[in-house]
Amino acid sequence: MARRGAGLKSTAVLACAILGLLSIKGLRTPQEIVWGLSAVAALSFLAGIPPLIFWRRSLLALPFCLVAFPLLFTHPGPPVAELFGWGISAGGLSQVAVIGGQCLLCFQVMQLAVCLKGPYELVEAVARLGCPSRLVDVLRLCLRYLGLVMEELGRLRRARQSRARKEPGLLFRARVTGNLVATLFLRSLERAERVELAMKSRGAQRGLRLSSSSPSPWGVAEFVLLGLTLTGLVGAWWNDWPW
Amino acid sequence: MTGPGSLLTVEELSFGYPSGEQALRGVSFRLAAGEKVALLGPNGAGKSTLLLHLNGVEFGQGRILVGGELLSRDSIERVRGQVGLVFQNPDDQLFCPTVGEDVAFGPCCMGDSPETVEAEVSQALRAVGLESLRERFPQHLSGGEKKRAALATVLSMRPSLLALDEPTAGLDARARRSIIEVLKGLPQAMLVITHDLELARELFTRALILDEGCLVYDGPLSAALDDEELLRRHGLTA
Question: Looking at the whole model, is its pTM more than 0.80?
Answer without folding.
Answer: no
